[in-house]
């Protein structure tokens, strides 16, 4: 029931409240940025992954305000509700995609987002250097965005990819784990 409402809300927000940007422009710009990071870090993909996550984290900390302003969504009551909101409203609102929420852990503290489509990965081929297929998580910026946004609503999470079609896997799957609910704390480096 709540899932269907979230789906309807996501569609409505996408159609009425969001400024649209050409998807190909975003895809090509993001791809160029990742290629530049690979060059800057001498193809040390672990460091590239960290930079993408860090960039995403900073984006997420600011994007959550835009999300609440445009969506009118109220604070979620639990992680299941949060997962549905992320999938059916957040991703729909900003990227016009709706990843599937699945693979809940027994304690309901972790779940997966399965991406049937990923606009950041359109037109992408990973470097053919024998390492990128095993080390680079091309869309790792999404993990950082979720971490940053959820931290701003007092949820500390870990987010990482477990598979990616760009690496030859059958699906693109991101795993999100709730580490803890945070008390009202000052953000890091904020005085």
Strand and helix map with partners:
Blueprint: H1 2-16, H2 23-40, H3 45-71, H4 79-95, E1 100-102, E2 110-115, H5 132-135, H6 141-151, E3 155-163, E4 172-181
Antiparallel strand pairs: 1-2, 2-4, 3-4
Helix pairs in contact: 1-4, 3-6
Structure description:
The chain has 191 residues and is of the alpha+beta class. Helices cover 48% and strands 15% of the residues. The chain is built from six helices and four strands. The chain has helices spanning 2-16, 23-40, 45-71, 79-95, 132-135, 141-151, and strands at 100-102, 110-115, 155-163, 172-181. The chain has a four-stranded antiparallel β-sheet, covered by helices on one side. Helix 1 packs parallel to helix 4 (79-95) and helix 3 (45-71) packs across helix 6 (141-151). The chain is globular, with a radius of gyration of 17 Å. The relative contact order is 0.17. The mean pLDDT is 87.
Sequence of strands across the biggest β-sheet? 1-2-4-3
What is the average of the pLDDT values? Answer: 87
Distance between the termini: 42 Å
Structural class comes to alpha+beta
The fraction of residues assigned to DSSP E strands is 5-15%
Biggest sheet layout: 4 strands, antiparallel
Summarize the helix and strand pattern as letters.
Answer: HHHHEEHHEE
Number of strands: 4
Helix content: 40-55%
Number of helices: 6
Overall 3D form: globular
Defining traits:
191 residues; 4-stranded antiparallel beta sheet; alpha+beta; globular
In short:
The chain is built from six helices and four strands, in the order H-H-H-H-E-E-H-H-E-E. The protein has 191 residues and is an alpha+beta fold.
């Amino acid at each position: 029931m709540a899932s269907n409402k979230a789906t309807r809300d996501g569609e409505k927000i996408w159609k009425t409240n969001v400024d649209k940007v050409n998807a190909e422009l975003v895809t090509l710009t993001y791809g160029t940025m990742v290629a530049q990071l690979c060059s800057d870090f001498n193809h040390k993909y672990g460091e590239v992954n960290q930079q993408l996550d860090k960039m995403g984290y900073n984006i997420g900390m600011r994007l959550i305000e835009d999300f609440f302003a445009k969506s009118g969504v109220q604070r979620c009551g639990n992680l299941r509700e949060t997962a549905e909101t992320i999938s059916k409203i957040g991703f729909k609102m900003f990227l016009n995609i709706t990843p599937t929420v699945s693979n809940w852990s027994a304690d309901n503290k972790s779940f997966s987002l399965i991406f049937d489509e990923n606009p950041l990965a359109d037109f992408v081929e990973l470097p053919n250097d024998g390492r990128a297929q095993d080390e680079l998580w091309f869309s790792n910026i999404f993990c950082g965005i979720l971490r940053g946004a959820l931290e701003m609503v007092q949820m500390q999470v870990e987010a990482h990819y477990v598979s990616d079609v760009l690496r030859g896997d059958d699906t693109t799957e991101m795993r999100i784990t709730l580490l803890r609910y945070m008390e009202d704390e000052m953000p890091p480096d904020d005085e």
